[in-house]
Amino acid sequence: MARESGVSRTTVSYVLNGKTGVTIPESTRQRVRDAAARLGYTPSAAARTLRSGRSDLVLCVLPDWTIGPVIDTLLDHLTTRLADRGLSVLVHQSRGPRPLSELWRAVTPRVVLGLAPFAPDDERAMRQAGIQVVGSALDEITHPGTFSVPQTRIGRLQVEHLAERGHRVVAYAAPSDDRLAAFADRRLAGVVQGCEQLGLPAPQVQAVDLDVASAAAAVRGWRAGPEPVTAVAAYNDEVALAVLSGLRAEGLRTPQDVAVIGVDDIPAARLAAPALTTVWQAVDAQARYLADAVLAALDESAEPPDQPSDIFHVVARDST
After folding, report:
1. Cα–Cα distance between 79 and 90 in angstroms, integer?
2. What architecture is the 151-281 domain classified under in CATH?
3. What region does 199 belong to: left with phi over 0, alpha with psi -120 to 50, or beta?
4. 48: pLDDT confidence band, cut at 50, 70 and 90?
5. Does pTM surpass 0.90?
6. 86: exposed, middle or buried (C-beta count within 10 Å: 0-12, 13-18, 19+)?
7. For this protein, what is any one GO molecular function term (predicted)?
8. How far apart are CA 38 and CA 215, in angstroms?
9. Fewest CB within 10 angstroms: 21, 49, 89, 195, which?
10. What are phi and psi of 31, to 5 degrees?
């Protein structure tokens, strides 16, 4: 690079690293930049981190979940908000046997953000290495500084809404993908709790694939007993849309014969026939909280952000 631009290595370093407090003619600066462009030079993020002792990287650790509309939207909002503060987000999905420690040691992030709790040993090692750690959890009770997105509350909201509509025999349409168990099991637990609290029979549970045949088979099972199911709480909107298709295939009307409620309020929920009742999630508020928690962790004197109060609520439509 120095030979290409006809200046010293020191001058090249000053120009490419934006060194302040030195006087370099603009013509020389431009000659160095032109040489860098011709040679295809790209600054090394790792080297810059070593020099400055700081990184602009946030490592977001995503468990082995499917990437649906909610996670996709959350990551989009989170990345945009942190980019406005000069931070880049690297998303890592935990699959395979490679330990997390190998990754964070390789990329040297300033913050590691987990969308699920870290193993205690991993969290302790990151903090000992001087990396800020921000976590979230899917349960009601978490340790201080962790963002809670309690999935059981979703299930209770579904049952409460169905009971308000006069339904007593409720089914739960579970996802068939085992990777969603962390969410599905907790939401089902909320449905079970809601039924117990309201004096309703325990929910009848069936896994439903995202196809008409699977949903129709579940519907036949729900309707065959001595007390036919009259309402279905689905794991999410996609499963709920499958249930709507299964009901139509069996010649049943929604909500007259069987009501259906989903979760997430995806765009297709509003376009369904009938329009789908669902539990809305404040994805933008969740992303804003996580981004603010990252910024607060970087500014150790800052107070952690307040957790949003309205995380979930029912959006009532024609399907119930």
Report:
1. 9
2. 3-Layer(aba) Sandwich (3.40)
3. left
4. very low
5. no
6. exposed
7. transcription cis-regulatory region binding
8. 60
9. 21
10. -65, -40
